Amino acid sequence: MSDKNELLKSIDDSRLRLFVAKGLDRAEAACRRKEPYFSDFADPVSAARLRALAQDCFSELDIRLWGGYEDAERLMVGFFPEFCEEYDFPIETVLISCSAYGTERLSHRALLGSVLGLGIERDRTGDIILRENEALIFVETYVADFVAANLEKVGRTRVGCAVTEDTERFTQTIGVNEIIKTAASERVDAVISAGLGISRGKASDAVKAGKVFVNWQQITSSSKKLVPGDVVTLRGTGRLKILDFLGKTKKDRLKIKLIKY
After folding, report:
1. Distance CA 118, CA 161 (A)
2. Which CATH number fits domain 91-171: 3.30.70.330, 3.30.565.10, 3.60.120.10, 3.30.1020.10?
3. Lesser CB count within 10 Å: N end or C end of the chain?
4. Alpha-carbon distances, residue 109 vs 43, 57, 113, 130 (angstroms)
5. Dihedral of the CA atoms 99, 105, 107, 113 (nearest 10)?
6. Which fold has domain 178-260?
7. How many helices (DSSP H) and strands (DSSP E) are in the chain?
8. What are the beta bridge partners of residue 234?
């Protein structure tokens, strides 16, 4: 088992260091008490960093990431001891709805602000999905009933709330807007340039600056080749998922089918 304190010293970002420290404490508790423990919600890069470090420290645990649905942006890390039969994460969803007429359109910013205004901490909340006059918010189980009972307005708009399991109609269309782009090659800098609409030089500079992640792991080489299924994140700019490589164009450029988030 790696030394936890030495691992924490390697993390410069104070917020990430605190998140990882709390997560490693929960992983240790899962080992000691032989029952599942979970981190708070976090961005996928932070969640993946915690999982990687926890795997170094606690090889006997099955460590998983989940945010309530496939391709969730905010994730929990679950620490499951050997022979654990339950893999349910403590995540619930609250459906928020407003009248179709005479109201302002719900926005992510206003909705999150209203939820936090109830005294709910940000790390207790996951993704928010908007659909016309409705929204779905993923939260930790123990705050779901509180949010549903107390959230009455979003901005100036009156809303109704209820804990729900009907998430499919919100999540089944996430990321279905597939696009096809052409790139010079499978290299990460070329794919970022094509998919996110920036120059290849800027993409390469972002890799050198530590701003590029493949499958939530930071990379250091612009020449890394991608494969279908890879998720590429340029911190502060956007995220891509590689669906397939479709062969070459007449100009010998690679056609890529991808999802741009």
Report:
1. 14
2. 3.30.70.330
3. N
4. 17, 37, 6, 11
5. -60
6. 3.10.290
7. 8, 15
8. 212, 238
Give the Cα separation of 73 and 29 in Å (integer).
Answer: 26
Q: Under CATH, which number does the domain 4-80 receive? A: 3.30.1370.160
Boundaries of every domain in the chain: 4-80, 91-171, 178-260
Q: Which residues of the chain have pLDDT under 50?
A: 102
Task: State residue 103's pLDDT score.
Answer: 53
162: its two tokens: 């209820």
- Measured in degrees and rounded to the nearest 5, phi and psi for residue 152 equal -110, -25
- Amino acid of residue 242: I
Consecutive H or E run containing 196 = helix 188-196
Give the Å distances, CA to CA, from 235 to 76, 172, 239: 19, 25, 8
Q: Which of 16, 27, 141 has its CA nearest to residue 77?
A: 27
